[in-house]
Amino acid sequence: MPATFRWIETTGARLAAESFGDPDDPAVLLVMGATASLLTWPEALCEELAAAGHFVIRYDHRDTGLSTLCPAGAPDYRVDDLATDIVDVLDGFGVARATLVGMSLGGYLSQIVALDAPERVASLVLIASEPLGWEGDPLPSMSAAFLDQFAGLQTLDWSDRTQVATVLLGIERSSAGTLFDEAAARARIEAVLARSPDIAAAFNHAVMQQTRDWTGGAARLTCPTLLLHGTLDPVLPVANGEALSETIPGSRLVLFDGVGHELPDRILPRIVEEIGRHVETA
């Protein structure tokens, strides 16, 4: 089914968004992680969720894809602005309440919205995410291999498309588990680069500032919450998913063996199944 494109006006930015399915179906808003555009949500996932009876929305964060860009290294927004954008996207599509499906930073942002605007959040699905305002023992850090690959951005010649694609592929490979599909990753990176006027701006997410103290935030969540996490996640290790499960009352944790910080094709049917069951019972 073809996607419907829409511009969303938000405070200080214009966001590119797409929807799939019938607007009368229960809404599912996909919120991606740091540095990632809407293309990081597989189109097959969007189509399958829509076919299963959901109105699916995905969008480009600020500084990604077709959305408003800031100069590289100089974002004019903070974490809370990205959370407010979620509500603006819902408003732009005329959606009163939705299930927020947030991956990585997108899950963190979704937790903020669930606390700030609980009337807009029917339920949460947090994929490869972390607890908002965690108060327990320190959680495991990112793997050395991932950090080494990410450090390659510091000396990257952003005008050299081949070099950029190679570094981004290395980051994806170091984020993956045992199901890494290099051909699919290369194709996705090429699509992202072709659609991004300034891919360096996406990494502004790594330097944006936090606005508020969210200590104990996850423990205050009351909406139905599904947690999906890969057992081999090297970016936000599975202990983060387990901490979310311990912290959010009534949450349900589903683990994917061999999966890293990624959405490999082979687990998409299970994700659709789990989200469908969650939305139906929320």
Automatic annotation (TrEMBL):
Protein name: Alpha/beta hydrolase
PANTHER family on file: AB HYDROLASE-1 DOMAIN-CONTAINING PROTEIN, HYDROLASE, ALPHA/BETA FOLD FAMILY PROTEIN
Stored InterPro entries: AB_hydrolase, AB_hydrolase_1, AB_hydrolase_fold
Keywords on record: Hydrolase
GO terms (BP aspect): glycerolipid catabolic process
GO terms of molecular function: triacylglycerol lipase activity
Stored Pfam families: Abhydrolase_1 (PF00561)
Domain AB hydrolase-1: 26-263
